[in-house]
Amino acid sequence: MDAPGHTAGSIALYLAEPRVLFTGDAVARSPQGQVMLGVFNVDPSEAAASFKRLATLDTEIACFGHGEPLTRDAAAELQAVTAHT
Known about the structure:
It contains two helices and five strands. By secondary structure, the protein is an alpha+beta fold.
């Protein structure tokens, strides 16, 4: 699926059956474990919109372009961040 903002052609991959999301650079996780909007975005407002769209998916596991994956209840973590984005 399209996930523009970091770059115009950014994508994310969602596997519905195992509920796994590969966010690419749309979402990142800090070394301390904080889930956050990816950094160095070409279009910050479009990047935030992509993040919010990804947070609506029924995701158990999220793998990021940067940072350790979330291995359970990833949707709740993503949705919590969107409340502040």
